[in-house]
Amino acid sequence: RLVSSVKESLGAQKEELEAAKIRLEDMLGHSSEALYLKDENCTYRLVNPAGAEHMDLDPDEIIGKTPSELFNDEDARKIEESDRRVLETGETLTEEITHNINDNQKHFLNTKIPQKDENGQVNGVICLTQDITRRKVEERRMETLFNNTKEVMAIIDTDRTVLKVNQKALEYLENSKEELEGVKLGYYEHLFPENKMKTLFDQALNGNKVNKTLEMKDKRGEQKIMDFSLIPILDEDDNVSSVLLELDDQTKVRRNQRQLEAIFNSSYELMALIDSEGEILQINKAIEEFFDVRKENIEGLSYTELNEYLKNQTLDSVYTKFIKNKYFQEMLEKDFHRKTIKMEKPDGQNAILDVSLKPVKNEDGDVTSILAEGRDITEMKSNERQLRDQKQRMEKFSSIVSHDLRNPLNVASGYIELAKETGDSEDFERAKEAVRRMDEIIEELLALSGKPEDFQKEKIQLSEIFRKAYSFVDADPAYEIRDDLKFQGSSSGVSRMFENLIRNTVEHNDDANIEVGTIEKGFYYEDDGELDENPEKITEYGYTGSRESSGVGLSVVQRVSEIHEWDLNIVRNTENGLRLEFLVED
Predict the structure, then answer these.
(1) Among the residues of 133-183, which ranges form H helices?
(2) Which residue in 443, 438, 447, 582 sits closest to 516, CA to CA?
(3) Model confidence over 214-226: pLDDT tens digits?
(4) Which of 67, 149, 464, 577 lies in disulfide reach of 76, CB 3.0 to 4.6 Å?
(5) Cβ(349)–Cβ(321) below 8 Å
(6) Own/partner pairs for 411-414, CB < 8 Å, 24+ apart?
(7) 129 Cβ contact partners less than 8 Å away, ≥ 6 residues apart
(8) What pLDDT, on the 0 to 100 scale, is given for residue 481?
(9) Which of 490, 493, 513, 491 is nearest to 502 (CA)?
(10) Residue 424, by phi and psi: left (phi above 0), alpha (psi -120 to 50) or beta?
(11) What span, in angstroms and rounded, lies between the C-alpha atoms of 493 and 455?
(12) Neighbours of 452 (CB within 10 A)
């Protein structure tokens, strides 16, 4: 019975052990982690499918073999050394190892647990292995980024211990890793103003990202402007496990930015920064003053909002015509556009702007915004017109000199020749008078070519000034003075005007009569010759109906009228001749 009882007991234990083995193998077969069981000789006795896959072998190719039969000498030595350590100490060992499997370097995290018999003696090693190759590659990539970024970076534990600093931190603080890592954050608080670090760090520990711009001193005591960030790092349970500190030195950028802003706002040119959608980002003080607007009311407005705010004021007109239309769109493709705009300012004054659009590009060459610049060239354009007018006057003056001096020069030459033949002193006096007249004409022309305020005016008599002019003309057409008038004017200028009118009548008509008289608020001059030309054009400089005429004479009439600020009306008279009416009173 005893023998039978023992046999039954042993049979039951054997069945239980077989069942346990089946359950264990089933459990290991479904595990995603690699598992290996080794005996005291480091020989593999059990391996699950995941473990065989890690080694890129079948389980039958692993069981019964030692590491030296499966790995190269160096890897096998390392594996057996760690196995022996567990067998000897009876303690669990965790380590990272690298194996070359089929010429591919792989990284594993091994946890080796001592296996003990029923007496507590270590008789084998249980090895759990995780393939961490992908994680190690990611860690190296992050390490490369961490150490090669331009920002100062540090990883800080929740107890404010600095766990890790990057290469930039070592350069910026001029310390070694041993000096910076493992110390409390308080070691650095002397760099920050008003001991703000603790308050900001507490915010990060509460899961909040902190972004600040701080003015702080570096190790040398130089004042710096830094972009400061604290970014909480969360664990799998979304709890803050550590904090990433970033410092970006913006001192040079911010100082340049401040200088550019100072230039932007102190410039006399109108300047605005506009984004690629047409929204006004920034305007300077010159625009505020020129358009009578406030920047806080303009900046940030879209076109629709700007239109609503300005209600068709001048800036709205400029924006519509020059910024919103095709010129702005061209900036997205071209480098520059320029245009002159005539406009009316809010105060009602006319202005001329020289406006240019310049693209602002990022590092990739993409247009991110447009710089619009405007220069008020109203005064410059006015000066250009004055210079152009002055040039035209000088050209007229040159022509008039040759035109008006020709007549007295002919008179002087004729009397000198006559005096040579007769010896009569009266002929010399007449020649002398002609020369005197030439000198007078030169003085008159100099005055006539100048500005109106340089032309001296006095009270003159219509009949007297006409007869004076008539006496200087080398001709004797019939004339009649119907009535008389006294008015303010330049004696020399009006005399020359009548001389040119009389000479024009004589040059264009063989036998003509001249009539001078008064009209309401002025006087008139007319002849009864034939007028084929357009009356409105005969006083234009260079216009003439005769090949022998220079086209200058009657332009003097126009100039004298302008200097005196008279209204000049030129028409045909009843005889189809010429009639000029001068309104000398307002």
Answers:
(1) 133-148, 167-173, 177-180
(2) 582
(3) 776 666 667 777 7
(4) 67
(5) no
(6) 411/437, 411/474, 412/438
(7) 33, 34, 35, 36, 51, 54, 108, 109, 110, 111
(8) 94
(9) 513
(10) beta
(11) 8
(12) 12
Segments in 359-490 forming alpha helices (H):
378-422, 425-448, 462-471
Closest to 460 measured CA to CA, from 373, 560, 365: 560
Question: What's 283's DSSP letter?
Answer: E
Amino acid at residue number 452: P
Q: What pLDDT does 466 receive?
A: 95
Question: Residue 64: what are its φ and ψ, rounded to 5°?
Answer: 90, 0
In angstroms, the CA 453 to CA 457 distance is 10
Strand 513-519 versus strand 478-481 pairing type = parallel
Parallel, antiparallel or unpaired: strands 350-361 and 44-47: unpaired
3-state secondary structure of 132: coil
User: What phi, psi does 534 have (nearest 5°)?
Assistant: -75, 120
- What letter would DSSP give residue 184? B
Contacting residues for 32 by C-beta, under 8 A, at least 6 apart: 50
Q: CA neighbours within 13 Å on the CB side: how many for 188?
A: 27
pLDDT of residue 483: 93
- State the residue for tokens 């406006």: 355
CA distance linking residue 199 with residue 447, whole number of Å? 84
Q: Tokens 């008789």: give the residue.
A: 123
pLDDT value at residue 460: 94
Q: Who contacts 311 (Cβ-Cβ below 8 Å, separation ≥6)?
A: none
